[in-house]
């Protein structure tokens, strides 16, 4: 991971001061670096020491960071990772344009790997992520959204980059198509579980630990799995209260809605869905030989269910 950070620092070079300032601001905020870590752990499990793994780990972090910059503008978010978002500090225009810079820099870097299969995976991934963003926008304030439609969005918007990170390692290692598919399945399942838990924490987490405001999803009109489950489990009156908040942005009764979500069993149901995805990820690891790296991947899937930030 230190090698990845070194590559990130080297490739953030630019002669445009504002680009460097905004990019360094959001990347220096840290974050979990799960996607690059996933690529490195699977590389280790496959006994791959291809030096391009550090470049590609930095690439997936750049792509992820670009999506964060764009997301925060679309969502009008003001806090991420415990401090002001880039759009809050620098404005919307610099955030969007620096997001574009990070996307284009990521493609410059992946070209340097000189592997058409790598290019195909990452090009397809960025396209699917963009589709997921548009799908989410279309689903805003739609109280008829069901779990299948919700999962379609998060598997495009969030899980796809996890899947790509997990797939790139066996491609570099020259692994079989079966191993590549298993690694990709692990990444997709892990990314899905990660996003479901993230959506749960929006209603039961600690704002200070999360580094963002609780209830942001409700304020933005995002119909996530906890809301879908709450609507299925609530009385008619409570359903109308939730629907009014989603459809009209009326947060007058936000505290009552939070109580409904928490008392209806919706969060437990959402966590059960995440647990099923985590088990799917664990099952996919049967394709890998036993090693400390595989053990870490197993621990990562199990640890998601206890995530609190």
From TrEMBL:
Record's catalysed reaction(s): 5 isopentenyl diphosphate + (2E,6E)-farnesyl diphosphate = all-trans-octaprenyl diphosphate + 5 diphosphate
Metal-binding in keyword set: yes
Coiled-coil parts of chain: none
Cofactor(s) annotated in UniProt: Mg(2+)
EC numbers for this chain: 2.5.1.90
InterPro entries on file: Isoprenoid_synthase_dom_sf, Polyprenyl_synt, Polyprenyl_synt_CS
SUPFAM superfamilies: Terpenoid synthases
CDD domains: Trans_IPPS_HT
Keyword Transmembrane: no
Gene3D superfamilies: Farnesyl Diphosphate Synthase
Short name of any one Pfam family annotated for the protein: polyprenyl_synt
Keywords (A to Z) from UniProt: Magnesium, Metal-binding, Transferase
Gene Ontology biological process terms in this record: isoprenoid biosynthetic process
EC class of the enzyme, as a word: transferase
GO molecular function term, any single one: all-trans-octaprenyl-diphosphate synthase activity
PROSITE patterns registered for this protein in UniProt: POLYPRENYL_SYNTHASE_1, POLYPRENYL_SYNTHASE_2
UniProt similarity note: Belongs to the FPP/GGPP synthase family.
Chain's role: Supplies octaprenyl diphosphate, the precursor for the side chain of the isoprenoid quinones ubiquinone and menaquinone.
The protein's name: Octaprenyl diphosphate synthase
Species name: Hydrogenophaga crassostreae
């Amino acid at each position: 991971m230190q090698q990845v950070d070194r590559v990130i620092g080297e490739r953030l070079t630019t002669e445009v001061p504002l680009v460097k300032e905004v990019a360094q601001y959001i990347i220096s905020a840290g974050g979990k670096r799960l996607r690059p870590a996933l690529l490195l752990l699977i590389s280790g499990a496959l006994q791959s020491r291809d030096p391009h793994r550090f470049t590609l780990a930095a690439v997936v972090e750049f792509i992820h960071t670009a999506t964060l910059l764009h997301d925060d503008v679309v969502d009008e978010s003001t806090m991420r990772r415990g401090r002001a978002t880039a759009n809050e500090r620098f404005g919307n225009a610099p955030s969007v344009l620096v997001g574009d810079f990070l996307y284009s820099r990521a493609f410059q870097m992946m070209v340097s790997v000189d592997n058409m299969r790598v290019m195909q995976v990452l090009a397809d991934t960025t396209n699917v992520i963009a589709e997921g963003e548009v799908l989410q926008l279309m689903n805003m304030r739609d109280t008829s959204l069901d779990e299948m439609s919700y999962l379609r969005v998060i598997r495009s918007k969030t899980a796809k980059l996890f899947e790509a990170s997990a797939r790139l390692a066996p491609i570099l290692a020259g692994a079989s198509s079966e191993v590549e598919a298993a690694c990709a399945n692990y990444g997709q399942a892990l990314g899905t579980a990660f996003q479901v838990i993230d959506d749960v924490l929006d209603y039961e987490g600690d704002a200070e630990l999360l580094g963002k405001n609780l209830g942001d999803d409700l304020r933005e009109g995002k119909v996530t799995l906890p809301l879908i489950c709450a609507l299925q489990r609530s009385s008619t009156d409570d359903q109308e209260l939730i629907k009014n908040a989603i459809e009209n942005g009326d947060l007058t009764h936000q505290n009552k809605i939070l109580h409904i979500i928490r008392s209806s069993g919706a969060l437990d149901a959402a966590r059960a869905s995440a647990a099923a995805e985590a088990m799917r990820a664990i099952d996919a690891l049967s394709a890998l030989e036993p090693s400390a790296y595989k053990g870490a991947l197993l621990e990562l899937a199990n640890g998601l269910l206890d995530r609190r930030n």
